[in-house]
Every structure is written in structure tokens, then in C-alpha cells.
Design a protein that fits this description.
Strand order of the largest sheet: 2-3-4-1-5-8-7-6
CATH superfamily of the largest domain: 2,3-Dihydroxybiphenyl 1,2-Dioxygenase, domain 1
Bound molecules: fe (ii) ion
CATH class of the largest domain: Alpha Beta
CATH architecture of the largest domain: Roll
Largest sheet: 8 strands, mixed
Length: 366
């Protein structure tokens, strides 16, 4: 029985060293609105949490308020990173019971959290590394996020001064796992969550002179939730996946791809906000017309911003990657606009990984 009712990604929770300052970053650099807060002022004693929203994307930033927080060790092990991907399901108890029956490790048994706005349900299972998947349901909850969270007072991150950059939804979330473990995690998603494999790329697709990786993409039954899974492959030098595994201290989320309807506008706004993106050489753009054919966007503008283009049978897509967003070379973001193509930019892998290797070289980790 492969069927598993998942509706969409409800939110992504990051565990960070300083949620208040991370909220400032995602608000002022990525254009999110800070919509809710939990912490001492709302009688939450052990952690602070900020809920950020843009389009259909919800991020939650959580920081421990003392070393006694049960997750505080994550900060030493990983630095800032993704702790949990929450999936919206029609029935949390059913989803949790079914996942555990299929072999998942339970982390948080289903519970109903209540306040005057109604009932919010959550239960969690273990995914790769210490990353978790939560099943959540807010059908009977009218509040802004979940019990314990309150909308912010006007003086702290006033919603009226948010400046959205056009990020609309989460396209995919990518995991890095250890060498030889990719197929196990594909199988986990197939067996436990009823995902199917959409695409795979071997080390011949994704290699440069120095390093290589392999990747398989799994998606849920509706195709709405897509999780590519990467593992390092043998190369002359240390691959970007090995670098990630070293600095993150194990498997975890490598990047989150966010959809925009106008990538030129979005990336221009993010650059104005001082977001740093990876760059590819001009030769990439010289070769672009022959590789992808006619596109609607102005090539000179794409080159100026460093936006990459790839195509498949159904259309084309535009994408760009930020540099890592914290001190460690771990989590980064992708901005993507799809014009028909459902692909993951195979034609860009080489140029992109060479760009990543130039960054690795600067860090002395290539
Ligand atoms: Fe991606």
C-alpha cells in the first residue's frame, strides 16, 4: 500500500542560534513578513520562535533560551539549520500510526494543542540524520500559526513595513546524505510516505574535473512535494556534499528552492537587500542561446544577475543559488521560476558545481 495522504508542506522549522536576528535577516533580505512570535512574553519558557510568511511559504525560526532545552546540542553539532519539515495531512493520528507501522521512528506522538483559536494537531517521525518530518493539521485552528504563538506588537517587525520580493511557494527541499545511503533514503520515502522516484542523476551527469555527486528525486502522489536526495560520489577532490556532511555533522537539508513568478524582479530585489548569489562565468551566457533556444527573458539581464536557464521537453526554467546563509558551508537557498519545465536544472549542474568549487577553494575545503 503506497498511498499516503500528504497535502503540502505546511512549514519548515529552522533551529538557530538567535531567532530574533535570523528573523531580521529573512525579513529584510528575503522579504518575509514576521507574522507571529512565541517566547517569554507569551509564556513559552524554554524557547523563542518567530513565524515568517511570504506567499504560501511559512518558515519558523526557533532558538533555545537555555542549555536545558532538549535540542540545544543541535547548535553545537550543526550550527543553524533545518530541524523539521512539517507536512499537512488530513488526519495526524492516522498518518503517524501508518508511518510508524511502516517502519518510521516516532519522535513525537500525535498531540492536540489547544487555545481560544481552536485545535492544532502535530506528530513527528525521524527522517535523515536528526531531521524530522512532522504531520500537522490546522483544519480546526483559526489562529495565525499554532497555540503559544501570538501576532507581533507593532513595534517589533511591523507587518506594514515588510517588503516582499515575490517568493510564492516551496518548490523542493533537498537532502544531503552519506555516500552509499541515497538509495536507502529513496526507499524510506517510498516505503513510509508512498513517494515515487521522479528522476535520477548519476555521477556522470553531475561531475566536474574535481568532484561528483549522485542525486535522486522523490515526490508524493500528487507531485506537490518534491525531495531530491544527494550523496557524494568519488572524485579527485572533496565534493560539496562531503563538505556539507563535515560541517553539518551529518545528513541534513542542503537547500530549499523557492518559486517566484518573476525571477528577474525577485533576484533584483534580493540583491538590493544584499543577498549573495553564486556566479557563473560569462562563457555560460555565450553558450546559452545554442543550448536552450529562444526564451522570453533578456539574456543580458540574466547575465547581469547571474540567473541560470535550463530546458526539457516541456519548457524551460530559470534558477539561481544563494551562497550559504550562515557561517558554515551548509544550508543555502535556490530561487526558481518555471516556464513549463518540471526539471531540476541538469544542464546547469556543471557550471553550478564549478561555481561552488570556486567557493570551496576560497574556504580551503576543496
Ligand atoms: Fe534545487
Amino acid at each position: 500500500m503506497n498511498d499516503f495522504p500528504l497535502r503540502k508542506i505546511d512549514h519548515i522549522r529552522f533551529f538557530v542560534g538567535n531567532a530574533r536576528q535570523s528573523a531580521f535577516f529573512y525579513r529584510n533580505a528575503f522579504g518575509f513578513e514576521v507574522v507571529a512570535y512565541a517566547g517569554l512574553e507569551t509564556r513559552v519558557k524554554h524557547e523563542a520562535g518567530y513565524v515568517l510568511r511570504q506567499g504560501e511559504i511559512t518558515f519558523v525560526l526557533t532558538s533555545p533560551l537555555s542549555a536545558a532545552h532538549p535540542e540545544s546540542q543541535r547548535l553545537i553539532t550543526h550550527g543553524d539549520g533545518v530541524m523539521d519539515i512539517a507536512l499537512d495531512v488530513p488526519d495526524v493520528s492516522v498518518a503517524y500510526a501508518e508511518a510508524v507501522k511502516r517502519g518510521a521512528t516516532g519522535i513525537l506522538a500525535p498531540q492536540k494543542l489547544q487555545d481560544e483559536q481552536g485545535t492544532y494537531e502535530i506528530g513527528s517521525i525521524l527522517a535523515y540524520g536528526d531531521t524530522t518530518y512532522s504531520f500537522v493539521n490546522r483544519d480546526a485552528y483559526k489562529g495565525i500559526f499554532a497555540p503559544g504563538y501570538k501576532s507581533l506588537e507593532a513595534e517589533r517587525y511591523s507587518p506594514s513595513t515588510a517588503r516582499p520580493v515575490g517568493l510564492a511557494a516551496i518548490d523542493h527541499v533537498v537532502a544531503n546524505v552519506e555516500e552509499g545511503k541515497m538509495d536507502d533514503w529513496v526507499e524510506y520515502h517510498r516505503r513510509i510516505l508512498g513517494f515515487t522516484q521522479l528522476q535520477h542523476f548519476d555521477d556522470k551527469d553531475i561531475s566536474t574535473e574535481y568532484s561528483a555527486l549522485m542525486s535522486k528525486v522523490v515526490q508524493n502522489g500528487t507531485g506537490r512535494i518534491k525531495f531530491p536526495i544527494n550523496e557524494p560520489a568519488q572524485g579527485k577532490r572533496k565534493s560539496q556534499i562531503e563538505e556539507y556532511l563535515h560541517y553539518y555533522g551529518g545528513p541534513g537539508v542542503q537547500h530549499i528552492a523557492l518559486i517566484t513568478g518573476d525571477i528577474i524582479k525577485t533576484v533584483s530585489a534580493m540583491r538590493d537587500n544584499d543577498v549573495s548569489f553564486l556566479r557563473v562565468p560569462q562563457s555560460y551566457y555565450d553558450a546559452l542561446p545554442a543550448r536552450v533556444g529562444p526564451i522570453r527573458e533578456d539574456l543580458a539581464k540574466l547575465a547581469e544577475l547571474g540567473i541560470l536557464v535550463d530546458k526539457d521537453d516541456e519548457g524551460y526554467m530559470l534558477q539561481i543559488f544563494t551562497k550559504p546563509v550562515a557561517d558554515r558551508p551548509t544550508l543555502f537557498f535556490e530561487v526558481i521560476q518555471r516556464r513549463g519545465s518540471k526539471s531540476f536544472g541538469k544542464g546547469n549542474f556543471k557550471a553550478l558545481f564549478e561555481a561552488i568549487e570556486r567557493e570551496q577553494d576560497k574556504r580551503g575545503t576543496l
